[in-house]
UniProtKB/TrEMBL annotation:
Keywords: Leucine-rich repeat, Repeat, Signal. It holds the Pfam family LRR_8. This is Nyctalopin. InterPro entries: Cys-rich_flank_reg_C, Leu-rich_rpt, Leu-rich_rpt_typical-subtyp, LRR_dom_sf, LRR_TM_domain-containing. It comes from Rhinolophus ferrumequinum (Greater horseshoe bat). GO terms for cellular component: dendrite; membrane raft; perikaryon; plasma membrane; postsynapse; side of membrane. SUPFAM superfamilies: L domain-like (SSF52058). GO terms for biological process: visual perception. Residues 1-23 form the signal peptide. Residues 336-387 form the LRRCT domain.
Amino acid sequence: MKGHGMLVLLLHAVVLGLPSAWAEEACTRTCPLACACSSAEHGCTVRCDRAGLLQVPAEFPCEAASIDLDRNGLRFLGERAFGTLPSLRCLSLRHNNLSFITPGAFKGLPRLAELRLAHNGDLRYMHARTFAALGRLRRLDLAACRLFSVPERLLAELPALREFAAFDNLFRRVPGALRGLANLTHAHLERGRIEAVASSSLQGLQSLRSLSLQANRVRAVHAGAFRDCGALEHLLLNDNLLATLPADAFLGLRHLRTLNLGGNSLGHVARAWFADLVELELLYLDRNSIAFVEEGAFQNLSSLLALHLNCNHLTVLTWAAFQPGLFLGRLFLFHNQWRCDCSLEWLRDWMQSSGHIADVSCTSPGSVAGLDLSQVDFGRSSDGLCVDPEELNLSRSSPGPSPEPAATTMSRFSSLLSKLLAPKAPVEAAANTTQGPINASLSDSLLSGGVGDSGHNTPFLLHSSLLLSVAQHVMSVLQTD
């Protein structure tokens, strides 16, 4: 009985292993010579990358689920270039030299879900029927193909398309082929030459959740440009040329979670811009020229986790910009020109209580320049009002006119007295003297016994003695004060 049980288990193992063995044998049986084929959990994988191929192999395993032809020298795809591959789901042709794709090149691939054509720099034109019959395609990658435009009907054949990657191209406007793609969720259009987002650019994209337009040349976003994008969660407009925005630029984007406007030329922040963004979590306004934030600009951003205002031209930020909302997230304010007076006392208190703000370096007033705002002390006047640091320092050190140091005062008085006591040189001597002491000290004048060789200096000495007594009295009074 025991031996019989072992035999049954062995037979089960053999039977269960047969499909796997058959799949592996079927995957490798027709593998192209320059490729490596293997069967895994997700089906038969064919790797032909970096194989030096100049044309598509004539035959692939019928069971192929993924084919990688990256980094070869392919230049042309003819009719049914890959034959009939009913299981193929992913086809990658990145980093080749493709210059033309025949309409119908992808026929025979009914289950293809992902097509990667990125980094084919000579593929500057595509026929409107290039992707005909790819009704199940979900992801299309056309990045870095030096495309100037996308034919209006090119993507209309792709009703299931979810993700479109076309960054690093030469578009001057948002491709019109995107309009009406009701199932599109992600569009990557960064690092191009797009100059504007027109009111019709994104029509019909009601499922769009992520749109990247960063690092283009966008100077204008037209009013209502995103009105059809109510599902949008992430919008990247950073590193463009925006100097202003229409009041209703983001109207209707109630599900937006990330908005990046950093690296533009915005000079102020308007209250109307973010009125609808009740679910916004990350707002980037860094690296602009912002000098003013309107009252209530952030008042509706109750879900905000981080606000980036660093690297701008701000000197003041009032609490009124946040009221009546309550913002408890992180606030990035470094690299601005902060004037740390009483208008920023609320921010100092917030820094000390929440710990979500740091590096607010004071540029002015001079009494606190170079300090961090968290180190600034604000005084109180007798009626409880805040006193600016500059006024506070003046009131502490200078309650009245600043008295001169006694030594300086006596020195100046002695110098003046010396001038009064100094004899006037004869005209002849003065004419022949090019330089000499301008002022003589009081002791030198007295020791000299006057001036001249005539010896008639008694009246001068009497006057000197009288002036000396006066000087001593004045200096004693100054020392007492």
